[in-house]
Amino acid sequence: MFNKIAMGAISLNLILLSYICLADNSKPPNILFIMVDDLRPELGIYDHPVVKTPHIDKFSKNATIFTNAYVNVPVCGASRASMMTGIRPNQVRFRTYQARADKDAPDAETIFGMLKSNDYVTHSIGKIMHFSDDSSDDWSVPPWKPKVEHGMGHRNYLLDENISFFKKNRTGPPFEKAEVNDNSYFDGKTTVEALNRLGVLSKKQDPFFLAVGFVKPHLPFNAPKKYWDLYDHSKIHLPDNAEQPTKAPPKAKHAFGELRKFDGIPENPLPVPDDIARQLIHGYYACVSYIDAQIGMLLSRLDSLNLTENTIVFILGDHGWSLGEHGLWAKHSPFDLATRTPLIVRTPDHLSGTSKSGKSHGLVEFVDIFPTITELTKLKKLDQLDGESFAAQLKNPSSQGKSAVFPRWAIAEIIKTDQYSYTEWRDKRGGVLERMLYDHNLDPEETFNVSGEPEYAEIVKSLHQRLSEHVSEFGI
User: Fold this and answer.
1) What is the CATH number of domain 29-403?
2) What CATH code would you report for 411-476?
3) 76: annotated active-site residue
4) Confidence (pLDDT) at 15
5) Does the annotation mark 21 as catalytic?
6) What does the pLDDT read at residue 369?
7) Active-site position among 130, 282, 326, 332
8) Where in 289-399 does DSSP place strands (E)?
């Protein structure tokens, strides 16, 4: 009898121990990291009345939607290098679209390198780093991008007349509406490759970090005709704040050279004519809907492969974009339109109900993405990281965000709080050349610079002090 009881107890203990071991050795979460170039927070889930993004909107019902997410520098190369290393830009590091993580911060680890060293399989599809070979050893396999034809680079025209014009003039129109299928343009090809990779990765035992980068809505605004047809051109409106803000300093204005390079755009300093402006806005919206469809296909494949419940999904832009507001186009400015972008994150806890879904209005910045991933994957935080995890806001969107975030552009240093956006253009010695202040409670579209108004003198003084302390800590 004793032996039977003893053997029974041993068997029960072995069963319990096996369950404990299975729990301890459970697979870490996969990560699907979707980055969209030049994406403004103009999606259905951000309450935009015109833009049609049904797939992102559906996804967002079980996610945290960050309404005040700021990049640290509004240009692609620098933004991506800063984001992927978790290191802030300054006047000598991560400054331009040509910035590289492996050159500007050669001793730093990248998000994907850190994950790779912790047994993740890491893949890059489309545009993730600005240069495919930037930190390329940190990927498990070489980064993949669609093949460029006719020497057009990112322009990717499909219509014969536009290809011929480009070959002759090395430029082309700033938009294209072609009656083609989704897979004809680069981003459709990126989707096909990403879907294939998901199939391969689903069969592996190791967790994966799959980064998928879409080019649109970057210029030129090329998209299949069916996405243009989603919008009534007669109802495309120009922005109400199309003029430079009252009392804005001259340094707040730029020539939007990125757009000027295209055929049909007047030379500086002439403004973009209203008819072309409407076409540009229409094209931008079409591109956003095109990318929404691509994202929908990725999310659907996650479901069909039974990966959804153990995959963290990020959907984000690399910075914002101006569509004629303040008389500006493109990024390259300290205005909110250039520095604020969508950030939507879904974790397995959102799906299980242990994390609340909804909009988080607390401030976050993109140097916070790296430490957040570190916390979500339960890995050790690196000393190099300048940001803070926003995992608490993923658990509960009403959790408090940061008291301030700090974008910067060229010689402009910016501090953004819940109420104010304050910019100083500084010389190399830290002297203030110009300043700009907007009260977002009263002026969310940033139309009147109140930095010189007497009633804001103490606010300017306080924000100048906080900004100076920040610049002193992270270097000019």
Assistant:
1) 3.40.720.10
2) 3.30.1120.10
3) yes
4) 42
5) no
6) 98
7) 130
8) 311-317, 322-323, 329-330, 343-346, 358-360, 364-365
